Amino acid sequence: MSRLRDYAILKAVQKACAELQVDRARTVFVSGIGCAARFPYYMSTYGFHTVHGRAPAIATGIKLANPELDVWVMTGDGDGLSIGGNHMLHVLRRNVDLQIILFNNEIYGLTKGQYSPTSRRGTRSPSARSARSSIRCRPASSRSAPEPDSWRGPSTHSSRTSSAC
Ligand SMILES: Cc1ncc(C[n+]2csc(CCOP(=O)(O)OP(=O)(O)O)c2C)c(N)n1
User: Fold this and answer.
1) Mutate which of 108, 112, 114, 127 to test ligand 1's pocket (most atoms within 8 Å of Cβ)?
2) pLDDT tens-place string over residues 60-116
3) What gap in Å lies between CA 155 and CA 163, rounded to an integer?
4) Of 92, 86, 101, whose CA–CA distance to 144 is shortest?
5) Can you give the pTM of this predicted structure?
């Protein structure tokens, strides 16, 4: 049971790709660093395991070089919103035609539980003993970016407004 839970995202994407009969020769998974980073190894497609937070930049390059490819970014809340936060903002601002899946476990898991941009208020971690504040933003609600399928944050303002970071 726990194995199913552990690999839920992988299984869901593999199942979706099979059902949609995606052309694996035209599909690329790009990851950074963190628990999401090994994702490309488990897909029978092209893939890049890149550097921390930089998957959006490399994915942008792949898409520009060959727009025919279906390019997926697999990232985490630390990888995609912390060290790679700047790259994430720009890939959203440019509205590059990518699929971005952000594994939001609300912590840096691989490095033993440091506070991340999506950690809940009050979370205690080795890097934030009192953890009174939490970085809150809705970068994906900027004017040029498409609305994400789900974004859990405190702001309830309507979508497609300027970034509220
Ligand atoms: C340049 C660089 N800085 C820091 C690290 C250490 N590091 C590895 S994974 C990680 C955080 C990943 O967090 P997240 O994206 O939330 O993934 P999770 O581990 O929770 O799956 C950090 C800081 C690194 N590998 N490279």
Assistant:
1) 108
2) 999 999 999 999 999 999 999 999 999 999 999 999 999 999 999 999 999 998 989
3) 11
4) 92
5) 0.83
Residue pair 71/58 in contact by the 8 Å Cβ criterion: no
The residue whose CA has the least distance to atom 14 of ligand 1 is 78
Tokens 């003993």 — which residue? 129
Ligand 1, atom 11, lies closest to the CA of 108
Q: Is the CB of 37 under 6 A from ligand 1?
A: no
The whole-number pLDDT of residue 141 equals: 59
Kindly list the structural domains of the chain, giving each domain's residue range(s) and its CATH number in brackets, ordered by start. 2-102 (3.40.50.970)
- pLDDT single digits (tens) 128-144: 766 555 555 565 655 56
What is the Cα–Cα distance from 135 to 99, expressed in whole angstroms?
Answer: 24
Counting ligand 1 atoms within 8 A of each CB, the residue from 6, 39, 110, 123 with the most, and so the one to mutate, is 110
Planar angle of CA 50, 51, 57, nearest 5 degrees: 75
Residue nearest to atom 2 of ligand 1 (CA): 52
Nearest-atom number in ligand 1 for the CA of 33 is: 9
